[in-house]
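Title: Prediction job returns without error message
Component: structure pipeline
Severity: low
Priority: P3
Assignee: unassigned

Description:
Job completed but the reporter wants confirmation the result is attached to the right record. Sequence as submitted:
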Amino acid sequence: MGLRCGGSPCRPRRFPPVPTPPRSRQSPSGRPRPNARYRTKRSVERPRWGMRVATTLSVLVLGAAGIGHAVVTSVDTGIGRVDAFKDMKNRPDAGEGMNLLIVGTDGRDKITKTEKRKYRLGGAPCRCTDTIMLVHISRDRERASVVSLPRDSYTEIPEHTDKATGKRRSKHSTKLNAAYSEGGPSLTVRTVERMTKVKIDHYLEVDFTSFMKTVDALGGVEICTVRRMKDSYTGLNLAAGTHKLDGGRALQYVRSRHIDGAADLGRMQRQQRFLAALIHQATSSGALLNPAKLREVSSTMLGSVRADKGFGAEQMLALGEAMRGFTAASSEFTSVPLDGTSRSVKGIGSTVKWDVAKSKKLFQALRDDKPLAQHRTKKPKATLVDVSPRQIRVQVYNGTLADGLGREVDQALRGTGFNTTRAPLNRSGSEVRRSYVTYDPRWDRSAKSLAAALPGCELRAVKGQGRTMKVTAGTDYKGVTRVRAEEPRQGEFAAITGDEVVCP
């Protein structure tokens, strides 16, 4: 199968290693011609099933890396085909790199009755898009930018023929996910291109029914949580700590939106953490470099994948070649900036509107092939805690006869970010064997975060103590463990890289 550029066929090439030109040459149609460096490296908000899409992209791209043509060609036969670029006119100009539109649909016909009952998957499918992601793979093969497009985004759908009634419909305002219901893949691509001004090169559509089996085929995925997560709607119930999630629990994790007040935003960020963890496992374990393993994972997952006619074995091989050095740090995640909270529109329902100025800058950065996340120096591994050490005030006491221990503990805690008094005190009385922390119960989350930095210490609640934590170092003190809170979204586009959200 030949390569395609922007939805049109063009001559296949073998991608020998040559220097990257400053910009790709344009064909008479205005679409970039394929060249050796057009191979790409690497490849969520509202989605209830967002990670099935991420899993698909990871397997298709990571799985192709270093695997023979015969294996990938056999995988290609399992992909359904759609004409996502039918009758496309007045499209945006092509930029650098490759843009994939990935959607997740609400099909569930392959989920068993037992699984539906166990993982709370009842209800009829809506035949609409739960997940819409724009994935930009940089031309220099150094970065993959994943931008989530909220399914409830308020938009105007272009004139089209309704696929259900066969009648011609004029352009009208509605939610973004209605584009698929009314006009299928082609109308979805047209709508997204109109909203973003980003030209889509390839289209991938995934049904969530194979998500659980795909995760199981990969051996499960490890995630970390700093507090208990419980959602009665999905059945999720995870204690604080590290967990290896199988397919069923992974599905609960990425679907949950009733854990805290963050609702859909929190769910989106959990989905992004899950994708980063999945990529980390796939690339660090080498599981997908094994042809037999690749075939198992791919055959499990690809039964529910549809793609445009130009995305086949050759494209998988090209993407795989580009991703040999792929890691979680190679990916970055963000969502379209929104203009305030959701609002109800008569005849449409609850919608969200994009921040016009900020979203314009975001998609311009994709067109210009620029990174979205801030560049940060690599940080040493640290235990995740619920409260940032910078927010925790600490008074240190030396509970032993060893001179200078208080000062040593104070400096060590300050070195990992705690707001210490820098004036340690000596505790009167006999030596303390076991170090302990006294705290006001009103600040129990801060106390637990501090205790994580002092392995083996005892926590003692003292009502009325106030915000300041008191650490008494005993003879068992052996040092401070580095801790950190989950990284806040920073920078102009509030993007974060995958290595910042995987387990330490």
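Comment from assignee: result matches the submitted record. The CA atoms of residues 107 and 491 lie 36 Å apart.
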